[in-house]
Amino acid sequence: MRGDERMVRSILARTILFALLTTIMFMMSLLPESITIINEADKPKGLTLQAASGPEILSRPRTSNHLVREGHNFTWASLPSTSNGNWHDKWLPYRLGPGNSSLKEFSEAQGRLPPEPKPLTPKPNDWIVTGKEVRENEIIVLTGNLIIKSGGDLTLINCTLLMNCSYNGEWQIKVESGGKLNILKGSVITAYNPNYEFSFYVYHGHLFMRESELHRCGGPDYGLWIHGGEATIEKCKISNCHYGVIITDVRVTITNCKIYNNTIGIKCYDSDNANIINCEIYDNRLTGIYLFDWAWNTAIIGCDIHDNHYGLLCYLHGCSSTKIIGCKIYDNDCGIYCEVLSCTINVHYCNIYSNEGPGLRLDQADGLVNVTYCWWGDAAGPEYGVGDPEDPEEISGPEECIVYEPWLDEPWVDTTPPHVTIITPTEGSYVHGLIDVRAEASDDIAVNYVQFYINGTLFFTDYSSPFICAWNTTIWPDGTYTINVTAYDIHNNTDCDVTIVVVDNTAPVGVIMSPAHRTYIRGRTFINITASDENLYRIELYINNTLVATWAENGVYIYAWNTTAWPDGLYEVELIVRDKAGNLAEAKVLVIVDNTPPEGQIMKPVNGSFVSGLLSVEIMGFDVNLRLIKLYVDDVLVATWAESGTHTYLLNTTTIKDGPHRIKLLVEDLAGNIHEEEIIITVDNTPPEGAILAPEEGAYLRGTVEIKVSGADKNLQAVELYVDDALLSSWIANGTYSYEWDTTAWPDGTHVLKLIITDKAGNRHEVSITITVDNTLPSAQIISPSEGSYVNGVIQINITGRDENLKILELYIDDELIASWTASGTYTYVWDTTTRSDGVHTIRLVVYDLAGNEAEKSVSITVDNTPPVISSVEQDPEVPSEGEEVTVIASVSDAISGLESVILYYRVNGGEWRTVEMTCSEGAWVATIPGQEAGASVEYYVEARDKAGNTAKSDTYTYEVKAVAAPGPGPGPTAPSMSWQTITIAGGVAVAALVAIFVMRVIKKRG
């Protein structure tokens, strides 16, 4: 009968609904413009509410305390009443208007991912956090953005942050990737002007909120948007935001929070591992919790969800592991509204009751909603129908997609306590310093929080796993303590675990009594120590980090150390005393083990040496732990050194008599080891004699030169001859010696001939002279005139002569010395060639140096002071016609140097002179003057130059150009036509003929 009753009620409801919809559509036409339908192509479909004073917004009735929403000036009008209490989609707010009545359209519009926050352009008043900042007990009004950069870490403790916007979304809080924001202990973030909201983005950063508040956030679209990274929100209040929290692509845990008076309390979209635990979510205008596509692994546990339009709104595609457990869902317009595609929602142990519409409504589902083990307001379980305000609650939707049996026949109450175990410290532990008290807690629903007590006093509360309490024992007196850890589930069931520990922050006492610090030891050495502690664990003795002895009781101990079994060197003797709490005392001394005697040697002089003058005594003494090095002469202490190494002592043998003497070395180390050795020397301070007999000081040498020397000493060691410190020869007997020195093997320049005579005691006699080797010929050059030159008049003879050791430069003409110079350089001699006969002459330069080297250069030149001879000049034709060329033929000769050039000069009508280079043809010089206009007066002359530069000029000749006679009247015999080529050839033949005639004339004249 129950099924038939439901069918009748459904038919009746649909009939009434049709009539009611007609009434509602008429009423909607009378509504004020505060309800705006947005249908532009670039905006999501839906409805926006304008928060202006006066207009009413359609919604279901609220109790009196909800009539005016704080700060928004919203008033709420009543819904039309229905006879059967069934609701239709079009009654629900935010989905009004033709063509926009389905939940799917709204979900598609609302479900889009919010746009990524636009890049922020830095403003002058921005608060940019790049490092660690802590603000406490402040009120901050921010007219700008709060940007937490990568590496930035901002903590607000009991602070109020007021975002001062002049329009919605003007400023924003942004936690960028790698940034951290901690909002703690009574902090409040809200809008300074309640009419203009700010934006809040956690974009791949980290957010931690505890015991704080967030209000009036969301302008222009969203509230606290957490995208990427991690976020934890504990015991907070979030209200009066567009969306309280929107979660995308992030792991977020929200526990023990109150989220109310928002459009949407919490929205999860494309998220993973969102945990909403023990929160009260109420008075949100659209929905308390909204799960949209790809909200993976969402857990809603122990929450109190009431007085929202939708308690939970689920529009899920392809999601998994969505679970709603242990929640109370009541006094909403609709408890849970789902559209589930290809996924499963699990709802268990929830109390769903007293909702205005259905407790569960499922549309367009091909997935599964499992709502078993829930209380539906009646022991008989839920009803299957559209929904009404009366219990039991209704379930609406495809039966094949909903599993609701078995149900609970009474409200579910969680009576199963959690389980908690203290992991560290363990029972009876000794602890010190800063320790972590770690606990593991679990519950069949969820662990709400874990409290840590020390000796019955609440010390710390942790709201999330892992449950850890950091305990600084150093501020507590040493003694025994009881640690109690109590776990609470979301319904305040508890479990506890207890452990007893001993706090010991007092360090043990440990002293090394001997050996003393920096002691040198050898052989068998005794190490004496004393150590004690009330909770002693162990006494440890180390030598260079090697454990050599341990003791387990307080007391005085001796360790015998055989140092001969250890290499010489520096050792650290360390005493460590440990107590059971991990405190320790350390004592260290450094000791030096030395079982090796020193080393020593007299390096110079050698035993049996002959010495004289200042004697350098070189010794070596070495020991890792040297005490002193001592030097004795004939048992008299003359020097000491305190450092290992090589040392020198200058012994003045002139202060002691000639003869044998004893030198002794003693090396002693800090351990008392000694090294000793001695040598015998003979003192002799009489110098030898010697001289360089030839060459003389300052001589210039070349070739092979004989050097003569002499040397003698009673105890002669050697007679040595050097050039520039290079040994030429040596002799070991007294006498006079000669050495043939080939100077060509040595570079030119100054050299020192040195004779050194030494005796066996090291006395020496030295004599030296400076000579100059010069095997390089001087340089000689006649720069001008050059070989074979033709010269005339007064000329310059330019010569250069050089030598490092120049003696003289001599200049000759035909073996006659005409000039000389005594310094290297370039010189000029002015020579009047007219003082010499025309013809060939020789110029010779000779250069001598001081070593006898000489260089000679000579050139042959020809003196020509006679100009060329122009014997005749003729022209053809003698009277040229208009346009006719004139050939000029000249007879020119030069007897000595020969002709260099012959030039024809001409000018027309007194104009500028023009030149034509004449060419020699069969002994005559020929050039052509171009044809001129009739009446032109032409002047010309010939100028000749010989190779010596002499010139000759002919007389100037003149001719006038006659006009060509005009042709006679009437026709006459036609002249044969001639081409230009013919004329040119004819002209050339004519010139050749003229030249031949001219040459013949010349020959006749000369004959």
Report on this model:
The protein has three helices and 88 strands. It folds into eight domains: 110 residues, no CATH class; 196 residues, 3 Solenoid (Pectate Lyase C-like), CATH 2.160.20; 85 residues, Sandwich (Immunoglobulin-like); 85 residues, Immunoglobulin-like (Sandwich), CATH 2.60.40; 85 residues, Immunoglobulins (Immunoglobulin-like, Sandwich); 85 residues, Sandwich (Immunoglobulin-like), CATH 2.60.40; 85 residues, Immunoglobulins (Immunoglobulin-like, Sandwich), CATH 2.60.40.10; 96 residues, Immunoglobulins (Immunoglobulin-like, Sandwich), CATH 2.60.40. The N terminus and C terminus are likely disordered. It has 1007 residues and is mainly β. 6% of the residues lie in helices and 51% in strands. It has a 13-stranded parallel beta sheet, with helices on one face. Strands 6-9-12-15-18-21-24-27-30-33-36-39 form a twelve-stranded parallel beta sheet, with no helix packed on it. A hairpin with a 4-residue loop joins strand 86 and strand 87.
